[in-house]
Amino acid sequence: MQIQDWWPLVDEPTRQWLRDNNGDVVPPDVLARITAVAGDATAGAPWAGGSGPDGFLLSDEAVDWIEEAANDEQRPV
C-alpha cells in the first residue's frame, strides 16, 4: 500500500506526529497505528525504510511525500 492510500486512514494525531517529526525514528505506538491500516512494514512496502540501530524509519520517498503534504503540495493520487 502506498503512503497516499493509508495517509487518510490513520488518525490525525498520527499524521500530526509524522508531520512534526518527519524523518525521525518512528516510535512503536505510531508504527502500530500505521501498520493497523497499511499492513506490515515489509521490505516490499514502499513507505517502509526499515529498522536501523535506533528503530524504524520511513523510506526517503515517504519522508518526501509527508513534507510535500505538510506544505500543501501533495502529489496527485
Describe this entry's structure for a reader.
The chain is 45% helix and 12% strand. The protein has helices at residues 3-6, 12-20, 28-38, 60-70, and strands spanning 48-52, 55-58. A two-stranded antiparallel sheet has the order 1-2. The protein is globular.
Topology diagram in text:
Elements: H1 3-6, H2 12-20, H3 28-38, E1 48-52, E2 55-58, H4 60-70
Antiparallel strand pairs: 1-2
Query: Helical residue percent?
Result: 40-55%
Largest sheet, in brief, is:
2 strands, antiparallel
Instruction: State Rg.
Output: 11 Å
Dominant shape: globular
SS-based structural class? alpha+beta
Report the span from N to C terminus: 13 Å
Tell me the total number of β-strands: 2
Residue stretches low in confidence (pLDDT < 50, at least 5 long) are none
Which sequence of SSEs, written as H and E, runs from N to C? HHHEEH
Averaging pLDDT over every residue, what do you get? Answer: 91
Strand order of the largest sheet: 1-2
How would you concisely characterize the structure shown here?
By secondary structure, the protein is of the alpha+beta class. The chain has 4 helices and 2 strands.
